[in-house]
Amino acid sequence: MADDRIITALDVHSLEDMKKLVETLGDSVSFYKVGMELFYSAGPDAVRYLKDQGKHVFLDLKVHDIPNTVGQSIRALTRLGADLMTLHGTGGRAMMEAAAEAVRDEAAKLNIERPRLLAVTVLTSIDEDAWKEIGGKYSIAESVKNLAKLAKEAGIDGTVSSPYEAKEIREMNGPDFLIVTPGIRPTFAVANDQKRFTTPSQALRDGASHLVIGRPITKAADPKEAAEKILAEIQGV
Ligand code: C5P
User: Fold this and answer.
1) pLDDT confidence of residue 193
2) What is the chain's Cα-based Rg?
3) Fewest 10 Å CB contacts: which of 65, 126, 128, 223?
4) Of 43, 40, 22, which is closest to residue 32 (Cα–Cα)?
5) Part of which pathway (predicted)?
């Protein structure tokens, strides 16, 4: 049956399309990612529906603003009951601390389990030239490590990282730190536009705690069968 380490990305823009997918996947998937496309189209109902279905929700809105605004936004999102949420590590220490405090405080008030916060380090669409162009002083690899360390210090629970960064972050931030990696292609799937990707079992062996997988499941001729094949691939890993 389902494995909480696999998060299926619901990259659709209507509640109807989302529900169709969730119904099709049934009990083969227990954890879903709601990203900007779906949230900006369908709003909080997308999260509420998934929670009503007993699913875990990764709300990937990549929040980034001044600390006060981020704190208040994270409070509002905490009330939706998502399990994982994202913010940009480049928002800095004070912004991450404000988010970490807001999520703890709001969850305690509501007496619910605290959603975990993940910092995005450097977007994988940024290459060294683009990083320099926006003022990056160190290499991307150095900057990713620095941001992962800063995130942990600021009370953030994990990072969203490329599978290629997972090993180092795991060694640096210890066994309890969450490492969520997209860019995963099961052995049976095509790469689509992912250039740097790895298999589910390799990413887990490299230290990822959760894998975000989209098209290999959602665009498969038989999505449930694809999800089940992935579950079989990671059995025992
Ligand atoms: O379809 P695919 O498996 O490529 O989807 C992966 C999901 O992870 C998508 O929602 C995509 O936006 C997200 N993502 C990614 N690569 C990154 C960051 C996020 O594919 N570097």
Assistant:
1) 82
2) 17
3) 128
4) 22
5) Pyrimidine metabolism; UMP biosynthesis via de novo pathway; UMP from orotate: step 2/2
Paired tokens of 4: 């909480």
Binding-site residues from annotation: 11, 33, 60-69, 124, 185, 194, 214-215
Identity of the residue numbered 32: Y
Residue 215 has pLDDT above 90, yes or no: yes
Quote the CA–CA distance of 19 and 211 in Å, as a whole number: 21
Cβ-proximal residues to 150 (8 Å cutoff; 6+ apart), any chain:
89, 93, 96
- Cα–Cα distance, 68 to 147 (Å, whole number): 20
Among 65, 105, 149, 167, the active-site one is 65
Distance CA 175, CA 178 (A): 8
Q: Among candidates 16, 8, 111, 95, which has minimal Cα distance to 60?
A: 8
Lowest mean pLDDT among 86-95, 172-181, 191-200, 223-232: 191-200
- Ligand 1 contact via 183 beta carbon (within 6 Å): yes
The letter for the amino acid at 4 is: D
Q: Which domain holds residue 169?
A: 6-234
Cα maximum dimension of the chain? 47
Say which amino acid occupies 95.
M
CB-neighbour burial class of residue 190 (10 A; exposed 0-12, middle 13-18, buried 19+) = exposed
Q: Domain count of the chain?
A: 1
> Contact 106/78 with Cβ under 8 angstroms?
yes
1 located within any domain: no
